[in-house]
Design brief:
The protein is an alpha/beta fold. It is 39% helix and 14% strand.
Amino acid sequence: MFAQSLAALQQVVTPAQASALRQAPAALALWTQQAQQWLDGAEDGIARRVVTLGDAGYPASLLQTADPPLLLYVMGAPAFDLTQLERSIAVVGSRNPTAQGAADARAFARTLVEAEVTVVSGMALGVDGAAHQGALDAQGPGTRPATVAVVGTGLDRVYPVRHRELAHRIARHGLIVSEFPLGTPPLTHNFPKRNRILAGLTRATLVVEAAVQSGSLITARLAVEQGKDVFAIPGSIHSPQSRGCHALIRQGAKLVETVRDIFEDLRFDTAGLPPGTAAVDDAPAHGDDLRGLLDALGHGPVSLDALGARTGWTVAQLQAQLLELELAGEVARLPGGLFQRQTNA
């Protein structure tokens, strides 16, 4: 496969590696056939491409990484390609975010796209899916894709399956990218590997929520190794989903509360930001009781027992008032019998 002689290759790799590089992969013929069938099966409004390392359409930012993929399978809107990501942010986080974390991911992504910044994520459950959805909610007749999904399977598969409709929307208004051959199933070790592409394609990485052992921290580490900025949204000290972000901030990631914080740090023009990018608490028009309950909730997860101690209300009173706030979208019910106030990012 390589034109260099065996002796030339052995100057930069081991003899075993040099020998392997001189041999075509056993599955090459099958991969080529599958790729051609996939390219021929493109549907109206969704283009399919295979972009190799030497193509003009290969993203320059990936060429600067330590291990750029040799080729990329790309599917999406015909008007877009991977060279249009000079203004892009990776938005990543927990697969099991709090309600506030998912809302923050949607809100930040929506504001980024409204300001002509592409949102790149991994189409996983949780924060990834919320970020893609927020980006698509804001998509318009822009000059770059609203969102790009970098996935850990072949592009002839959708994982997780429940994101099938989301994947179709992304393909209509953005791009879906994979380095893995068609037919590749959702293998566990492929997802950390694809994170280097997430970090490599983008100007910076925003971590919304992440546990200490989260895959999102892999993306953040890879971004730092590539000399990119990492931003993290702080959360409650009582929330396990916030501990990864707090660890990143202690290690030097930039704490952000608004999209404006990101723009100022990256020296993007803030004039393009729409109104309402500040994280302010717009108090709803409630009576004194509900206003007092919202104050007692604070902004972290809290149990009924703790709320009872703060307010002096009975469990029955709390449940009735919390239900009203939950129906209004101002309070979310969390696993473990906890409640959390939701605010606009």
